[in-house]
Amino acid sequence: MNGTANNHSGVSLQVRGLRKSFDGQEVLKGVDFDVQAGEIFVIMGPSGSGKSVLLKHLIGLEMPDAGEIRINDKVVNPEEISAQYRTALVFQSGALLNSLTVGENVGLYLSEHRLKPPEEIEKIVSETLQAVGLADAANKMPGDLSGGMKKRAAIARALVIEPQLILYDEPTSELDPLSSVMVGEEILKLQERTQVTSLVVSHDRDLAFGIADRIAVIMDGKILKIGTPEEVKNFNDPLVQKFLNADFKHQKK
Amino acid sequence: MFENIGEIVVLFWRTLLALPLAWRERQKIFDQFYEIGNASLLMVCILSFFIGGVLSLQIGPFMTDKGLTGYLGGIVGYAHARELAPIMMAILIAGRIGSAMTAEIGSMSVYQEIDALRTMNINPIHYLVLPRMVAIAIALPMLVVVSILVGWFGGAVVAAVNTHIGISYQGFFSDLRNVVQIKDVMNGVFKSFCFALIIGIVSCHQGLVTLGGPRGIGRSVTKAVVNSIVLIVLFDYILTRILLK
To answer: Does A96 reach chain B within 8 Å, measured CB to CB?
Structure first.
C-alpha cells in the first residue's frame, strides 16, 4: 500500500446553487454545501432525494442546469474535474469492468495512462488488494465476487488513483451488516492514512453517524441541514426526525 | 436511425482524430481482430462456397442452353468479386460481430462501466471504439478476399460436378481470368472497407447510447444490426455508382 498511499492531499470542495432537471422534473433545487479538505462528509437522504445525481455532477458524469462547483476555491467545469484533479468514484454497483480480472480492474488507471511499468503496476495492485483484504482475488473475474468483495475491489481501484477527492455512492447498499462495517472501516482507514477528502452518499444511518465528520441531510433536492452527527441528530425538523428515526412499528399479535 | 446520424458522424470524426493512438492500442486491436477472424472465418468459407455454387447452379444451365458456357467463370467471378462477396460478408459480419459489439458496449453502458472509465479519465472512444473500428476495418476486407477465393472455388466445383453444366475447373478459371481483373477484386475489397466502417461505427454508437436494462441491450442490438444492413445496402448502391465510372 505504501506506493499508493503517501501522495494524497485532499482538496476542498464548494458547491453553489446546483440545479438539475430531467424532463421538466427538478431533481436538484439549488444545492449549496462546502466540504473541507481531508474530511469525511456524508450526504444522507431517502431514496429519490437526488443524492446520486448530485454525486454524478461532482465527477462530471452530469452537467448542471445552473450553479457552480469549486475545488480549492477555483471554479471548475464538471466535465474536466477528473482531468484536472485526481478524483475517484466508488459506484453503488462497483462498476468493475466485467471483461477484466479484478487485478486488471484495479490497475486499469495506471496501465491506461501508462503511469508505471507493468511490473510496478502488478506490485501496486497486489499491495492495494491486500490492503482491502482481497489479496487472493487478483485473478478472479468480477462475476466471481460477492457484493462486499466487489465494493472493496472498487475501493481498491479508486485507491490506486491516489485520489484527492473520493466519492462513494451508497457504499453499503446490498451488503450484510458485517460487510457494511468492513466497508465503513475501510473508508475511515483510508481517510486516516491519506487525508483524502471523502464524500459519501448514503441512506445508511449507521454508516453516516459512524464515519462522518459532518453530515448533510438532503430531501427532495434540497439540503435541509448540515452539521456534525450530533447536530444533525438533534435537528428539530419533523421530516429529518422521521427519516432518522424510521423503524418498524408492527406489533406481533 | 436518421435522428442519430449527427451523433454517429461526430463519433466517427472523434474516432478518426484518435487514430494516431492506434499503435498504443495495438494489443486491444489485435484481440478484437482475432475475435472477428476466429468467430467468422469458418462461416465466411461455408457461406462463400455456397454463394459461388448457387450462382453457378442458377446461371450455368441457362448459359449452357444458350451455348454460352464459356462465359460462366467470368460471370460468376465478376459478380462474386464486385458485389456478392462484399455485401454478403458485410451482412454476415453485421449480424455476428456488430451485434456482439453493441451488446458488449451496451451492457457496459447499462452497468455503469463506461461511467467508471470516464471517472478514471479514460476516454471510452480510445478504449472501446478505436480498437473495434480499426480491427473490423482490417478484418472485413481480409475476410472478403477469402470469400472471393472460396466463392470462385464453389462456383467452379458446381460447374464441374453438375452434369447439366459440365465445365472443367481449367475451363472455368481460364474464363474467369479473361474477364476478372485485379481492379474488380480491389473494388470489392474497397467496398467491404467502407461497409466495415459503417458496421463498426453504427454498432459502437448504438452500444454507447444504450439505456435501461437487458431489454434496452436487446433493443440496441436489433437496432444496430438493422441500421447497419440498411446503410450497407444504401452505400452499396452509392459506391457501385461511383466505382462504375
So the answer is: yes
CB atoms A98 and B120 under 8 Å: no
Do residues A210 and A140 both lie within one domain?
no
Supply B34's cell numbers: 482475432
Q: CA-CA distances (angstroms) from residue B33 to A134, A209, B98, B135, B143?
A: 34, 52, 13, 5, 11
A103 touches B: beta carbon within 8 Å: no
Same domain assignment for residues A74 and A180 = yes
All three cell numbers of B14:
472523434
Find cell 458485389 and name the residue. B83
pLDDT digits (tens, 9 = 90+) for A179-235: 888 888 888 988 888 889 999 999 888 899 999 999 999 988 899 999 999 998 888
Q: Rounded to whole angstroms, how far apart are CA atoms A169 and A246? A: 22
Its domain, for residue A182, covers 10-86+165-247
Q: Is residue A73 part of a domain?
A: yes
CB contact under 8 A, B104 and A59: no
Q: What is the ipTM of this complex?
A: 0.83
Cβ distance B112 to A82 less than 8 Å, yes or no, reads no
Is there a contact between B122 and A109 if contact means CB atoms under 8 Å apart? Answer: yes
| A3 belongs to a structural domain | no
Say yes or no: A70 and A109 in one domain: no
Task: Indicate whether A157 and A47 sit together in one domain.
Answer: no
In this prediction, residues B78-106 reach a mean pLDDT of 96
Please state the pTM of the whole predicted model.
0.85
Interface residue B31 vs chain A (CB under 8 A): no
Q: Specify the number of domains making up chain A.
A: 2
Same-domain check for residues A16 and A63: yes
The DSSP secondary-structure symbol of A38 reads T
What percentage of residues in chain A have a pLDDT greater than 70?
A: 95
Residues of B in contact with A99 (CB under 8 A): 104
User: Tens digit of pLDDT for each residue in B168-199?
Assistant: 999 999 999 999 999 999 999 999 999 999 99
A87–B contact, CB cutoff 8 A = yes
* Domain boundary, last residue among A161, A177, A196: A161
Q: Provide, rounded to the nearest whole percent, the portion of chain A with pLDDT above 90.
A: 46
Question: Residue A252 falls within a domain, yes or no?
Answer: no
List the grid coordinates of B190. Answer: 474497397
CA distance A159 to A181: 19
CB-nearest to B119 from A88, A97, A98 is: A88
- Judged by a CB distance cut-off of 8 A, whether residue B136 touches chain A is no
A116 with A183, same domain: the answer is no
Of B111, B118, B120, the CB nearest to A93: B111
